[in-house]
Amino acid sequence: MRSFLPFVVLGLGLLATAGPALSPRILHEKRTHVPAGWTLKRRHDPSTPIPLRFALTQKNINDVGKYLMEVSHPDSELYGKHWSAGDVLKTFAPSDETIEAVRSWLLEGGVESDRIQLTQNKGWIEVAATVEEAERLLQTEYNLYSHTSGKEHVACDAYHLPVHVAPHVDFVTPSIHFDAKLTRRDSTQPAHSIGQPGPGIGPKTTGKLQAQLPSDTSTCNEYITLDCLRALYGLEYTPNATGSNSYGIVEYTPQAYLQTDLNMFFGNFSPSQNGTSPYLVSIDGGYAQTEYQGFEYNGESDLDLQYAMGLLGPSQTVTLYQVGDIVEGASFNNFLDALDGSYCTFEGGDDPSQDAIYPDPYGGGYEGPEACGTVTPANVISTSYSYDEADLSVFYATRQCAEYAKLGLMGVTILYSSGDYGVAGNGGLCLNPDGSQSTNGTMFNPTFPASCPYITSVGATMIPPNSTVYDPETACEEVIYSGGGFSNYFTIPSYQQSAVDSYLTNYYPSYPTNIWNATGSRAYPDISANGANYLVAIDGGFELVYGTSCSSPVSGAILTMVNDARIAAGKSTIGFINPTIYSSQFAGVFTDITTGDNPGCGTNGFNATVGWDPVTGLGTPNLPKLLQAWSALP
Ligand SMILES: *[C@@H]1O[C@H](CO)[C@@H](O)[C@H](O)[C@H]1NC(C)=O
Ligand SMILES: *[C@@H]1O[C@H](CO)[C@@H](O)[C@H](O)[C@H]1NC(C)=O
Ligand SMILES: *[C@@H]1O[C@H](CO)[C@@H](O)[C@H](O)[C@H]1NC(C)=O
Ligand SMILES: *[C@@H]1O[C@H](CO)[C@@H](O)[C@H](O)[C@H]1NC(C)=O
Ligand SMILES: *[C@@H]1O[C@H](CO)[C@@H](O)[C@H](O)[C@H]1NC(C)=O
Ligand SMILES: *[C@@H]1O[C@H](CO)[C@@H](O)[C@H](O)[C@H]1NC(C)=O
């Protein structure tokens, strides 16, 4: 942590000459409603200390999409010329001008310089303020809210910044951000990470298998196994470049795999892997906990690892990023902090209402330092957790989304499951006109990070009843519906413009435009893969599991095979794949899914159609075609 002492003179100089104190204020962020479960208790006490944090805008960040296209578009001369972590750090660190603009305004506002600190990564300015002072600086009023769970939270409805400061600040915490449900301080219960385990999130199960384990692919319409996926997607592949290749699966504690479950799965379906484990990378105290067991604790991790490891076989190690301790849990930002030293936030610079803070400020949790730029990202990273876009502020989502672009610049492929509730959000929540979410809302509710244009969103398909692995798949309509739709936060990226235009021209959805975002925004998913009837060994028995939680790790394993072939041929990793897979060079490479839909919010959702659609994206992978198309690229 550094103080600002070297800058003091400059700050005073500004104060003496210019008149930015008179700079008019503009509204920076505003909330329309208090989220469900929270009630206003009272105005916060003026003299209470409040740790104000200013997220500084990053230099060149508005160009991140352009840089990403340069290294990711197959027509670009720079295709595959990925950046080093150092290039990323240098390019996006906040500029001295940004730091100085915020700092000198605070000094003018009467904050002594020893109360203003810049985090080591220069991403945040932190101020030890009082509520009264914060209210004056931000022209706002802070209130105390309480949640039905007993949790308290400090927030305001809106806040303002001087016109000359606003362009340098992404957002301020605490302020309007209200998503405080992810961590809990009830030490008798494990943490809730990313709402997991929680209602409506994670894969679904219909319970224990009531039949014999299948021994061939004749029952893939009822039970998906490794062999079914191999038959469906042409996965005849033995990895060659395993020493230099990597595939990472992200899990958020208390979600954890059980070694006995892996043994049971591999013993039956991949005997040479019986007894093997993923390579564990612990982030912020993460470990494969065994204290809490049950489908909601083991289902996701067991599923992800059994299928990721099983498809790749014994020679390719799979990395498990286990994030967060059992007390605080963790969020996507905690994971991203670990990968990127330019994003990590010392001294709790993350949004404390959203992200876990390490070392645990309350005691009892992980006391070590927060992982910050210490973890090397795998070439492909699959995550099967999600938020609803509306859970997060635009600023928060935008900042995190740009971070995925930086990983893409470094040649990393980021996959996220698209959600399991069709056009509705997690748990079947839909939007109301005021921006709140409820199960009786009528407006489609996009998920995040699916809606971020810099990740690859994976939807779900299934083998229709009474069909075989040789028949066309359909959009998943068993137990879950493939998450899909149009973002309310992100505009459409150029790479999918023509695919989405074509969908909207030929199959314009028959809904009033006030229930879906018809402006032509970022549309998802990008691709899909089977997400129904997976046989997964969980808590000592085989269960049938459903969800885009299945589709994402399977797609990641397939893309890892493509990376293997490219690395073996001395080429770059595939990195951010969207500009490639939507390009004309890849026409017909994915298997188009043209039937089924993704109901939600009291509608049948969208239809799967010929070409890209907001149910199954471009379609399902076909490994031989993927290998061929990617081997034609430099
Ligand atoms: C893997 O290596 C073997 C032996 O070097 C070679 O015959 C095979 O073609 C390679 N496969 C791929 C996909 O590169
Ligand atoms: C897996 O290996 C263990 C010994 O390491 C053995 O006891 C078990 O029977 C094997 N599982 C199966 C299903 O073959
Ligand atoms: C939706 O449900 C909430 C309770 O969850 C209720 O207060 C509200 O009146 C309902 N709205 C409609 C339009 O039914
Ligand atoms: C599938 O086949 C079974 C028996 O062969 C039949 O009872 C059932 O109706 C069929 N289902 C569909 C969707 O065709
Ligand atoms: C639709 O999406 C765009 C982003 O492309 C956004 O600016 C707009 O506010 C969204 N509309 C609604 C009603 O949320
Ligand atoms: C989906 O297709 C059906 C049958 O063609 C049609 O009636 C319906 O309007 C379509 N749905 C949308 C959202 O366009």
Question: Short description, anyone?
Answer:
Residues 223-633 form the Peptidase S53 domain. Keywords: Calcium, Glycoprotein, Hydrolase, Metal-binding, Protease, Secreted, Serine protease, Signal, Virulence, Zymogen. Helix content is 25%, strand content 20%.
Q: Architecture of the largest domain, CATH level 2?
A: 3-Layer(aba) Sandwich
Task: Kindly name the structural category.
Answer: alpha+beta
Q: Mind telling me the C-alpha Rg?
A: 24 Å
Largest sheet: 8 strands, mixed
State which percent range the strand residues make up: 15-25%
CATH class of the largest domain: Alpha Beta
The tally of helices reads 14
Present as ligands are: 2-acetamido-2-deoxy-beta-D-glucopyranose
What features would you describe in this structure?
Helix 8 runs parallel beside helix 12 and helix 12 crosses helix 14. The N terminus is likely disordered. Helices cover 25% and strands 20% of the residues. The chain folds into two domains: 132 residues, no CATH class; 397 residues, Peptidase S8/S53 domain (Rossmann fold, 3-Layer(aba) Sandwich), CATH 3.40.50.200. It is globular, with a radius of gyration of 24 Å. Strands 12, 13, 14, 15, 17, 21, 22 and 25 form an eight-stranded mixed sheet that branches. Strands 1-5-6-4-10 form a five-stranded antiparallel sheet. The chain is an alpha+beta fold. The chain binds 2-acetamido-2-deoxy-beta-D-glucopyranose (6 copies). The site of one 2-acetamido-2-deoxy-beta-D-glucopyranose has 3 residues, from helix 12. Its main location: secreted. Keywords: Calcium, Glycoprotein, Hydrolase, Metal-binding, Protease, Secreted, Serine protease, Signal, Virulence, Zymogen.
